[in-house]
Amino acid sequence: MSAALAYAEPVETGAVVLPFRRGGCSFQCPTAAQRVPQLSDEDFERLNRLRWFALKSRLAPRPDVERACLVLSAQAGATVGGLATIFFRALDEHANRELALYRPGTLRPSEDEIWLLRLIAAWQDGERKAGSALIAWRVRPEGRRWLRFLAEAIAGRL
After folding, report:
1. Which residues pair with 95 in a beta bridge?
2. What is this structure's pTM?
């Protein structure tokens, strides 16, 4: 079968063939432009709050994550700020790569911030497997247990 017949057959069966143009084509692939996620007002507020916690955590001393998690598991009244400080310091220590977290008020979220919002949403919705998968995607194996614990604790208090 020749190439001309291969292209002619779908037209006879009712399929639509898109024309191929070079040069001054006005049609662009829909994935060519970077898509900006549309965040709800609630998600945008949550993201800004997480951004503030990330900034504040940089000023805090580097804790021993395992010891801090053991102490927090024994306390029922841990604050969101304290949990977030340990979470972001542990994330800084155990992440596969440096995460891009923008300053509060920035309109466009980074990919890492979208990941963070999905992580919190998974724990808030009770989707433990999805939350664990998101942690496994960005965190080295030695820190996954503690970051799962901290993410779940933060999500329960936000």
Report:
1. 139
2. 0.70
